[in-house]
Design a protein that fits this description.
There is one protein chain. Helix 5 packs antiparallel against helix 9, helix 9 packs across helix 10 and helix 12 packs across helix 13. The chain contains 19 helices and eleven strands. The radius of gyration is 24 Å and the shape is globular. Helix content is about 50%, strand content about 10%. It is an alpha/beta fold. Bound molecules: tryptophan. The site of tryptophan has 12 residues, from strand 3 and helix 9.
């Protein structure tokens, strides 16, 4: 069966192995990740696209960035916390941070006015980002409506796709509202514009998301790839092959006549020589350059050099974004977590009594009587309280493992497990509230100059 992944669906597939295969994601090996976070250690972040670009940039000491966006509608809850934790982790690894307030999207698809969006973004979202420890010096938050270049990019990238692709990726039909067609294009502008010179220049950008957002990444990566003048692919007989794409935008620059084409190929060869290759086979007639000795990890430096060359010739030189994918925490009632169903999640400003009530009512993996529980033990894999320790509240792996064992053995009862989680959640929510108040004065520092 095919898995249907849709960013707007109320269903969410948890068949992660199938998702990896069907959408061509790469599984994450813990050993690849320096300083793994709790989410990496626990397999919660389970797949990626081209994370290698980021890791290579990091290990070479080159710049790299992380990007996310928020729909300023409703309240922040634990699901949002997960993304911000990942953004903070990338920031700690050296990334600069760009965050889009998707006010145009919320305006078009949820009916909020732009001024309502601004208020919600500042008071609800950014206040929590500040409290969650993002570094104001290295975080830039902007509003889609106030950054024309993002809208312009979205508009012009539209040229690289069509309605059939939108139908295939998102399942759009004839009656789909066009705001839903425009939102992913503007979002592609969000994701790609940090590479422009005035927003930090060419560098790999990673977007950490839940798997339901992968359609946006597929679209965006496709759009960026289609603008590239020079493509790097695996070569059949080993090594890498560069092909040149002639298109409306570059026809006059790279293919006006034979001698121009030849000069372009000389430049490509020069770029490759500068990286250190000597065995280079350029075939201008067929539009290809082969590098038989190049290895897969050479792809990144070659692409970066070719994108620089493209930029020097007047092209956009956009690198496809990287992405990472996280599993979803189960909703508190056992189904999907959703902000439109408050009983399924905990809000970051939740009243402690309410939070406690939600855990007490939450779906349990325990047995129905104490006797049975002592005899058979509980099932932590389906137990909400345990899952929330795992995803959100217990930082210490050893302590988590102790609880897990105790629960499986029947030593820890469901009520006791819930109390452990409630205590942890109480401490976390209380501290977050204090940090929100203490750091409220920093909010303005997070805003980009075009958003003040
Ligand atoms: N569409 C996203 C949402 O519904 C918000 C968003 C806008 C976004 N631009 C982005 C997410 C760029 C990641 C990257 O929440």
């Amino acid at each position: 069966m095919m898995v249907d992944i849709n960013p707007w669906s109320s269903e969410v597939s948890t068949d992660y192995a199938r998702i990896i295969e069907q959408f061509g994601l790469e599984p994450i090996a813990l050993s690849q990740i320096p300083n793994p976070s709790l989410h990496h250690r626990r397999g919660i972040i389970f797949a990626h696209r081209e994370l290698g670009n980021i890791l290579q940039a990091q290990s070479r000491g080159d710049a790299f960035g992380v990007m996310t966006g928020l729909m300023p509608s409703g309240q922040m809850h634990l699901g949002h916390k997960m993304v911000i934790d990942q953004v903070r982790w990338f920031q700690e690894q050296g990334a600069d941070v760009t965050i889009a307030v998707a006010d145009l999207e919320a305006n078009a698809t949820r009916g909020y006015s732009l001024s309502e969006c601004r208020k919600i973004a500042l008071e609800e979202y950014i206040a929590n980002y500040v409290a969650m420890g993002l570094d104001p010096e290295r975080t830039n938050i902007y509003f889609q409506s106030m950054r024309p270049i993002v809208q312009r990019m979205g508009f012009t990238l539209g040229k690289r796709t069509n309605l059939s692709e939108f139908e295939a990726i998102y399942g759009f039909k004839g009656d789909t509202n066009l705001a839903h067609v425009q939102a992913p294009l503007v979002q592609a502008g969000d994701i790609l514009h940090p590479q422009l010179e005035e927003y930090g220049g060419l560098r790999p950008i990673v977007v950490p998301v839940g798997v339901d957002q992968d359609p946006h990444l597929r679209l965006c990566r496709g759009l960026a790839g289609k603008t590239n003048w020079f493509n790097v692919n695996d070569r059949k007989n080993g090594g890498l092959r560069i092909t040149v794409s002639v298109m409306d935008e570059n026809q006059n620059i790279i293919a006006s006549d034979k001698s121009t084409t030849k000069a372009i190929f000389m430049q490509i060869v020069d770029v490759l020589k500068n990286i250190g290759y000597s065995d280079i086979m350029a075939d201008a007639k067929h539009g290809i350059v082969d590098i038989p000795a190049a290895t897969p990890s050479d792809r990144y430096p070659i692409r970066m050099s070719l994108l620089k060359l493209e930029r020097s010739m007047g092209g956009p030189g956009l690198l496809q974004p990287s992405s990472t994918y996280h599993r979803f925490a189960v909703g508190m009632t056992g189904g999907k977590m959703s902000s439109s169903m408050p009983e399924t999640t905990i809000f970051l400003n939740e009243d402690l009594k309410k939070m406690e009530k939600k855990f007490k009512r939450s779906f349990s993996g325990g047995q129905s009587t104490i006797e049975e529980h002592r005899r058979l033990g509980g099932n932590p894999d389906i137990d909400v309280a345990f899952q929330y320790l795992n995803f959100f509240f217990e930082e210490d792996d050893a302590a988590l493992e102790e609880v897990r064992r105790g629960y499986i053995a029947g030593d820890i009862l469901s009520g006791q497990l819930k109390q452990i989680t409630i205590n942890k959640a109480t401490a976390w929510l209380s501290e977050l509230g204090e940090l929100r108040d203490q750091n409220a004065h920093l909010i303005d520092q997070f805003l980009a100059t075009d958003s003040c």
